[in-house]
Design goal:
With 434 residues, this protein is an alpha+beta fold. It folds into three domains: 105 residues, Acyl-CoA dehydrogenase/oxidase, N-terminal domain (Butyryl-Coa Dehydrogenase, subunit A, domain 1, Orthogonal Bundle), CATH 1.10.540; 110 residues, Butyryl-CoA Dehydrogenase, subunit A, domain 2 (Beta Barrel); 151 residues, Butyryl-CoA Dehydrogenase, subunit A, domain 3. Helices cover 46% and strands 14% of the residues. The protein has 13 helices and ten strands. The strands form three sheets. Strands 1-4-5-8 form a four-stranded mixed beta sheet. Strands 2-3-7-6 form a four-stranded antiparallel beta sheet, with no helix packed on it. Strands 9-10 form a two-stranded antiparallel ribbon. A hairpin with a 2-residue loop joins strand 9 and strand 10. Helix 4 packs across helix 8, helix 8 packs parallel to helix 10 and helix 8 runs antiparallel to helix 12. The structure holds flavin-adenine dinucleotide (FAD).
């Protein structure tokens, strides 16, 4: 029922219905200042452009995109061309790498709008895990690696995947990884078993995390290695079904086997033994990119909840009059705003050259929790309708549940935060909330 009458492409089996749960009401005019920092007027203009593109081309096409078939793929390609033509492509990375990015904070403002739709990151060329892989190649790639892989990746001509997690050992503690890359002349020979390699189906290459020196100090044992997906011995075994969803192409989470996979040593990203250091560099920005997108998802769920609460009547009046519902709305509003400010503050720190390790972990676990809770409340407000696929909430909930795991489960981020804070106190200091 969220399917809008303004469909510009397709109308699957008459699914277009009364938009009685229409979740994309006319855009609220932008305030001249979109957050706690004064933004460059160009960013505000870009934000308004992104918002209109979403209204005109993304939300109305979600029913087609959700089909995850050839028609959906063709539509993604068509919309990507429009995004490029309108100068909005790849806003996560700067023009020197082929994008239109202007830093983390400006991206946070754009990405909270792009993040409102599951498909929009793909359409705007800023989808994980390609963004993280592009950042890594941009920071650590050789000129040859950049030419061969980074350029076409940022241009959206190819996709990639990041292959670190293994079913047999704890992904939270990657010092246990078992995949090996053994040097043989000028080649690495890789053997291992991975899963949850997002987007591996149809991708052109992987960045694989493998143990290259088992005798080295724990955090220098592993390396990140570029592996073209068509190399002999790379087998995408299956797309794992996740909470009932298998996906296609970019939306898959795949099990992958590497059997005697031979690639040149020149495919090492950075130096051999730098795998963990590079993973940190990759995951930091990646986590904050996720948080920005989640802001969009939270806000969309919140809007759905508020609209439905005003419309649905029970026990003599609208749900909006019940105190429990009012509490959910108030709690969600404060939590969403807290997440926005935390995300903006973290992005601002990263732009200023700070690694912001604590802030990134704070927003990763807090953002994932708020995302989950806001969507959960919105579902509850909708009653049985909230569980159906007739609003975007059930799919949002499935993705939100994963958010509490990927790029490190909540518990590990809490551990990182408390360890770092306690370290300061142990040394006789205090924690500076500046
Ligand atoms: C949707 C999705 C997409 C993903 N995409 C990718 C990808 O593209 N590439 C990739 O390599 N991986 C990917 N992953 C894998 C993800 O990074 C791992 O799931 C994550 O790191 C946790 O590892 P694990 O699943 O092995 O859980 P484990 O490490 O086995 O942990 C299980 C549970 O133990 C608890 N736990 C762990 N450590 C602690 C601790 N110190 N204190 C308290 N409790 C703890 C937590 O509750 C945790 O959930 C993806 C996962 C999901 C869900």
């Amino acid at each position: 029922m969220y399917r809008d009458r303004r469909l510009t492409r397709g109308n699957r089996g008459g699914q277009t219905q009364e938009a009685h749960v229409n979740d994309h009401a006319p855009a609220v005019p932008l305030a001249p200042q979109a957050g706690f920092v004064q933004l460059d007027p160009e960013i505000l203009e870009q934000r308004a452009k992104v918002r209109s593109f979403m209204e005109e081309h993304v939300y109305p096409n979600e029913p087609v995109l959700d089909g995850e078939d050839e028609e959906a793929e063709a539509l993604v390609e068509e919309l990507r061309e429009r995004v490029k033509a309108e100068g909005m492509w790849a806003p996560f990375i700067g023009p020197e790498a082929g994008g239109t990015g202007r830093g983390f904070l400006p991206y946070a403002y754009l990405n909270e709008i792009i993040g409102r739709s599951f498909w929009a990151p793909l359409i705007f060329g800023c989808q994980a895990p390609d963004t993280g892989n592009a950042e890594v190649l941009h920071l650590f790639g050789t000129p040859e690696q950049k030419d061969q892989w980074l350029k076409p990746l940022v241009a959206g001509e190819i996709r990639s995947f990041f292959s670190m997690t293994e079913p047999e050992v704890s992904g939270s503690d990657p010092t246990q990884l078992r995949t090996t890359a053994v040097r043989d002349g000028d080649d690495w020979v890789i053997n291992g078993h991975k899963w949850f390699s997002t987007g591996a189906d149809g991708a052109a290459f992987a960045i694989v995390m493998a143990v290259t020196d088992p005798d080295a100090e724990t955090h220098h044992r592993a390396s990140q290695i570029l592996v073209p997906a068509d190399t002999q011995g790379v087998e995408v075994v299956r797309a794992t079904q996740v909470m009932g969803h298998t996906g296609r192409g970019w939306s898959t989470h795949c099990e992958v086997r590497y059997t005697d996979v031979r690639v040149p040593v020149a495919n090492t990203v950075g130096e051999a033994g730098d795998g963990f250091r590079i993973a940190q560099k990759r995951l930091g920005p990646g986590r904050i990119h996720h948080c920005m997108r989640w802001l969009g998802q939270m806000q969309r769920a919140f809007e759905l909840m508020c609209r439905y609460a005003l419309q649905r009547e029970a026990f003599g009046g609208p749900l909006a009059d019940k105190q429990t519902i009012q509490n959910w709305i108030a709690d969600s509003a404060v939590e969403i705003q807290a997440c926005r400010l935390l995300t903006q503050n973290t992005a601002h720190r990263i732009d200023a050259g700070d690694e912001a390790r604590v802030e990134i972990s704070l927003i990763k676990f807090y953002g994932a929790r708020v995302l989950h809770d806001v969507i959960d409340r919105a579902i509850q407000t909708h009653g049985a309708l909230g569980l159906t696929d007739e609003t975007p909430l059930s799919a949002m909930y499935r993705h939100a549940r994963g958010a509490r795991m990927y790029d490190g489960p909540d518990e590990v981020h809490r551990m990182v935060v408390s360890r770092r804070i306690l370290k300061e106190f142990r040394a006789g200091g205090t924690w500076d909330f500046e």
